[in-house]
Each structure stands twice: as structure tokens, then as C-alpha cells.
Design brief:
Elements (H helix, E strand, L loop, with lengths): L3 H11 L2 H23 L3 H15 L10 H5 L10 H17 L4 H6 L3 H11 L6 H12 L6 E6 L2 E7 H4 L9 H14 L5 E7 L13 H18 L7 E5 L18 H7 L1 E7 L1
Parallel strand pairs: 3-4
Antiparallel strand pairs: 1-2, 2-5, 3-5
Helix pairs in contact: 8-10, 10-11
């Protein structure tokens, strides 16, 4: 037979489960907040911290004592290779002297020069300066001023692609004529050691579609499409950056003082900018 005290104790134990459940929900909330905080990693800051920790930890071995052997022993070894070039040169001199009496071989060695020029052309693009890139783009795009504009900037070269010449309204697919111009631009930028930033810009007219809910998605899609084409044409993707800026950075006012739209300025603001900077 149950006593009243037992029933009261059992009732009190049943009332404790909401407290345990609230503790569990609090822990789960903290856990998800921690995951959310860790999921956003600043890559630049992470690399700087990793480099500083690597510089601080590499000189000190795990035992805490310096290792002089691997650092000091390799340094005395360079003197022995010095006589090797002399012997190699001696062998080359003997072979050259033995061949010098033949005048015909001098003419046979002339075809080697195209190989050197080919190597120079192969390594040439990586040595282009920003001035060389600007001049090359001016010569290529001088006949297409209505579609492409070179904007002078202190931090590099800016190539402004007019939206109407490259994209249809509310679309991120590049027109055939725009593909030809972008391939010429990519041929100039291919192999360069500079940073390439592709910026997408729109006007202030709102857009609502199932594919692009706003101008943010449209500007990002257009910039990404241009960046993918540049990468396919040889521009290094590890130096590429894409930004969708919507209508936040217009080159001309979209409206006048009374709030009326200015179509000419809106057309200028619809653009994609390729910025080449150190």
C-alpha cells in the first residue's frame, strides 16, 4: 500500500524533468552558437597567425635545445662544387677549340637562337609591368570604346565592361561579342603575377526573379561569370577575387535632385570592372 509521502516524492521527481530538459536545450544552443562562430574563418588573419607561429616555433626544436648540426654542416660544403664549373668549362673549351677550325658548324649553331627567343616569350608574360599591360590593352581595345573603357587608378589598371555590350537585361550570360573581347583581355592577363579583382555593379532599378531575387545576386553572378572565363583562358585562379556590389558604387547618379531616373547614368552604372593591382 502506497504512502502519502511516497506519492509526494514521486510527484516531485516528475516535476524535475523540465529543469533537465532546459539544461540540455541551453547546452545545445551554446553548442550551435559555437559552431556558427567557428564556421566563419578569416583566411588572411589565419594565414598571418600561422606564419607568425611557424616563424616562432621552427627555430626551437621539440627538446628546447638548438640543433647546430643541420645548420652548420651544410654551409662548409659549398666550396667543393667550385672546381666543378672550372672542369666543365675546361671540357667545353676543349670541345669548342676542337670544333673551331670548322667554319660550317658556326652556321649550324645559328638555328639555336629561335629556341632562346621562344623561352623568352614563354617567360615574358610573367614579367609584364602594369604599364605594359595598360599599353597592350589600349592597343587591343581602342576599336571597342563603346563596350570597354580603361579607367586610370593609382593602384593598378581598371577595365570597365559596359553591361549592355556584354549582358542582356536581368541576365548573367555573356554575349558572343563580349566573349571575343574577354578572350583578348584574358590573353594579356594570363600568367601575370598581379591580383585580379572582378567587380559586378548594377543600377538602382529593383529586380525580382526566381534566379536573381535582387541586384546583389545579379551583380555577383555577372562578376563570377567573367571570372570563370578569365580562369579558363589562363588567368591564375589563386590570384582571382570576385565581388558583387549591386548599386552601392555608382559612377554617376542614378536619379536627379527630384528623384527621377536618369537612363544615361543608369546605363553607365551597369558594368563589370576588372581591376589588376599589385
Amino acid at each position: 500500500m502506497l504512502k502519502l509521502s511516497d506519492l509526494r516524492r514521486h510527484h516531485e521527481e516528475e516535476d524535475l524533468w523540465p529543469i533537465s530538459m532546459a539544461d540540455m536545450m541551453t547546452l545545445l544552443l551554446c553548442f550551435f552558437l559555437l559552431i556558427l562562430a567557428v564556421s566563419h574563418v578569416d583566411i588572411d588573419r589565419y594565414e598571418r597567425v600561422a606564419d607568425s607561429m611557424q616563424k616562432a616555433l621552427i627555430p626551437v626544436p621539440p627538446t628546447g635545445k638548438p640543433k647546430p648540426a643541420p645548420q652548420i654542416l651544410p654551409k662548409p660544403t659549398p666550396p667543393p662544387p667550385k672546381p666543378k664549373p672550372a672542369s666543365v668549362r675546361a671540357k667545353v673549351d676543349h670541345t669548342v677549340l676542337a670544333r673551331e677550325p670548322r667554319p660550317q658548324e658556326e652556321t649550324e649553331q645559328k638555328p639555336e637562337t629561335p629556341v632562346e627567343t621562344a623561352e623568352n616569350e614563354r617567360t615574358g608574360p610573367s614579367r609584364k609591368s602594369l604599364t605594359d599591360i595598360r599599353k597592350e590593352l589600349v592597343s587591343k581595345l581602342s576599336k571597342n570604346v563603346d563596350a570597354v573603357e580603361l579607367v586610370p587608378r593609382d593602384d593598378g589598371v581598371a577595365i570597365s565592361l559596359r553591361g549592355a555590350a556584354f549582358f542582356d537585361s536581368a541576365s548573367a550570360e555573356i554575349k558572343p561579342g563580349g566573349l571575343t573581347l574577354l578572350r583578348e583581355i584574358a590573353a594579356t592577363l594570363a600568367g601575370t603575377p598581379y591580383k585580379v579583382t572582378v567587380e559586378g555593379h548594377t543600377d538602382n532599378l529593383p529586380i525580382e526573379s526566381w534566379l536573381y531575387p535582387s541586384n546583389w545576386e545579379l551583380s555577383s553572378a555577372r562578376a563570377s561569370r567573367v571570372a570563370r572565363l578569365l580562369i579558363d583562358q589562363g588567368v591564375p585562379k589563386d590570384r582571382m577575387r570576385v565581388e558583387g556590389l549591386a548599386d552601392t558604387q555608382p559612377v554617376s547618379p542614378n536619379t536627379d535632385a527630384e528623384g527621377r531616373s536618369i537612363p544615361e547614368n543608369q546605363a553607365k552604372n551597369r558594368r563589370v570592372v576588372i581591376l589588376v593591382s599589385p
